[in-house]
Description:
Blueprint: H1 6-18, H2 24-31, H3 35-45, H4 55-90
Amino acid sequence: MKNYPPEFKADAVALYQSRPGATINQIAADLGVSPQTLRNWIRAAGAGRPRGHGADALAGPAAPLEAENTALRKKVRELEEEHEILRKAAK
């Protein structure tokens, strides 16, 4: 039994939510996990796909995506700083 990091699980759920045309089976195959595992992660996150076509349908998942984007931008900055330090050390 494999253990996946929480970030991977959250990214998998976010991917499922962001691709309304894709099935759980397709996304699970892309990620290399079983469809039941992905389904369990989605249920545990209390996530689903937005319903409807209005602005309200997009308002729900926007907050988690904003938070994820902020965290990812912070990580990119940290990695760029580390890269710069290593580049300077190599000179």
